[in-house]
Amino acid sequence: MLLLHGFPEFWYSWRHQLREFKSEYRVVALDLRGYGESDAPAHQESYKLDCLIADIKDILDSLGYSKCVLIGHDWGGMIAWLIAVCYPEMIMK
């Protein structure tokens, strides 16, 4: 299960859900690009949706998963929706 936070939040917004779902899933809540402890890109172009979608795809790949349960809130919801549209094979729910 991958949790994508909203604006202007960071991974900590999901702390309660991490505890709730950990018995059923491997749950990952990350800081999206430029939020929390993540690196902030120098150029605005690095925040384009295709870059953010690629980040999530790369994270799933690096975790060794080909698909996941993807949950997004606010801005993270937009990213999750676009991942579902562009890469439906990566989404379990």
Automatic annotation (TrEMBL):
Keyword Lipid metabolism among UniProt keywords: no
Protein family (similarity comment): Belongs to the AB hydrolase superfamily. Epoxide hydrolase family.
InterPro entries in the record: AB_hydrolase_1, AB_hydrolase_fold, Epox_hydrolase-like
Keyword Transmembrane attributed: no
Taxonomic lineage of the native organism: Eukaryota, Metazoa, Chordata, Craniata, Vertebrata
Protein name: Epoxide hydrolase 4
Pfam families, per the entry: Abhydrolase_1
Positions of the AB hydrolase-1 domain: 1-89
Species this protein is from: Mus musculus
